Amino acid sequence: xxxxxxxxxxxxxxxxxxxxxxxxxxxxxxxxxxxxxxxxxxxxxxxxxxxxxxxxxxxxxxxxxxxxxxxxxxxxxxxxxxxxxxxxxxxxxxxxxxxxxxxxxxxxxxxxxxxxxxxxxxxxxxxxxxxxxxxxxxxxxxxxxxxxxxxxxxxxxxxxxxxxxxxxxxxxxxxxxxxxxxxxxxxxxxxxxxxxxxxxxxxxxxxxxxxxxxxxxxxxxxxxxxxxxxxxxxxxxxxxxxxxxxxxxxxxxxxxxxxxxxx
Length: 263
Fold this sequence. Notes:
263 residues, alpha+beta, 5-stranded mixed beta barrel, two-stranded antiparallel sheet, disordered C terminus
């Protein structure tokens, strides 16, 4: 009998799908879960911003003589005012900080209040690096009693990439409220001095070395809507890819092989 006389048989060779299919199936599920989680985060951030904005529109409160640091979180972004003497001899510059493309520092000065009231930390605002020396910005060093109005802020955490402060060397890269309070003998209370947004006034302050205070507004980023779209779009795209891989006929699944007992 000839080889050609033996009819061909179909034989399945190789695996149609491997572990990669499992990974591909997990991607849309994970992306969908992350998108759903971002919806929850969006609701949380929206409520948080609304709560802070509600505090901003209220009249400023007089700062109590003594403040319980654990209660500050309930007054975050609350407008307050107080009086005292700025301790320019204990001034701390946090930087570098960029404003309108220019390098500079945030000026933090302890405010020594009268009587039994505690000393608090005041972030007065931004100055250019060219006026780092106090001798070059005497107009920005008021003497005598001053009234400070600003936002009471809760201390925040340092990110992983920011170097540690070196108070003994006068090098501050991050507003570590507790550390700066211990260094100056103040309470760990942080007030960000505010001013009305005015471009001409800001230019004048910059030239004279008078710190440019922040605007009384909530500056929290809320990008969760963008994240929701990104994760759900990735989930949809990878779901389509998964369906195409499953439905696509495998190549070389069947192979004709001629067999013959006489081969």
